[in-house]
Amino acid sequence: MIMTYTAIQSLSILRDDFAQLDRSGIVRFIQSCQEEDGSFSTTPGAEDSDLRMSYCAFAISSMLDDWSGVDLPRALAFVKHCRTYEGGYGQAPHCEAQGGTTYCALACLALVPREKMPKQFLLSSPERAKTIRWLLQNQNLAGGFSGRTGKEPDACYCFWCGASLEILGVNILVNTDALASFIGRCQYKFGGIAKALGEHPGQPRVTRVRPPLITLAADPYHTYLASAAIAINPPNSGDPSWTLQPLDTLINASVATATWAREHVPARKP
Length: 270
Known about the structure:
Layout: H1 2-13, H2 23-33, H3 51-64, H4 72-81, H5 99-111, H6 125-137, H7 155-167, H8 176-185, E1 204-206, E2 214-216, H9 220-232, E3 247-248, E4 253-254, H10 255-264
Helix pairs in contact: 1-3, 1-10, 3-5, 5-7, 7-9
Cofactor: Zn(2+)
InterPro entries: PGGT1B-like, Prenyltrans, Terpenoid_cyclase/PrenylTrfase
Keywords: Metal-binding, Prenyltransferase, Repeat, Transferase, Zinc
C-alpha cells in the first residue's frame, strides 16, 4: 500500500501522463487490503494494518478520484477507534497517540469528499479543540515538536504535528520562528537535516543495546519532512533562505505535484 502511494507520487513528480496506469487494478488492490475492522494492510492478507496504510488508501483514492475500493463507514470507524483520551491518534486502537498517526487520521478525514462523509465521523467541536491542544503542547521550548507526550523534539514531527494543525486550520498558532530555529540547528554544514539537535548526517551513533549497534544519525527522511514543515509553516523573519515551494498538506507533495496528480491520475472521462 505504501509503495503504491509513493509510486504514484514519484510519477507525479516526474510529470508522467499515467497512460499505462492500471487504475481498476489499483482499486481492486485497495479493496483486497481492507480488513474486517476497517483498517488496511500493506498487502492483501498481511498482518500489519494500521493508520499509516489507511492514509495511503485514502490518498490513493483521492488522487484516483475513485472511492469504490474503500468501504468508508468501516474505514472511518477504524480511524475513530484509534483516537485516544489525549486528543491524538495511535497507530491502532488502544495505542499511544503519536504525531505521525494523528496526521494520518486527520488527513483521512479531510480527504473524504464532503458528499461521501457520514456525519457521525466528523470531529465535534470539543474533539477538535482537544486535538489542537494536544498538538500545540507538543511544540517544545526548543522550538521543535515531539511526537508523543513527554518526548524530545524530533525534526520529522515538525511536519507531522505542524501539518495536522494546518489541516485543522490553526497553524497560525505555531511558533514558526522557534520552529525554524530548531530545524536550522538540526542542519549539518555539509548538507542535510538531522533528527535532533547535535546529530548530523553521517555521524555514527552508538546505541545502548548489547552488543551496541552503530547507526546513522540522520537520513533523507528527516531532511524531507523538516523541509516540508518549513514549507507549511515558514518563519516570520522574511529570510528568503527559508522560502520553499508551497505544499499540499493532504497529499504531502508540492502544490504543483499534487495538482498534476489530481489532473492526470484519474481516469479520463470520455
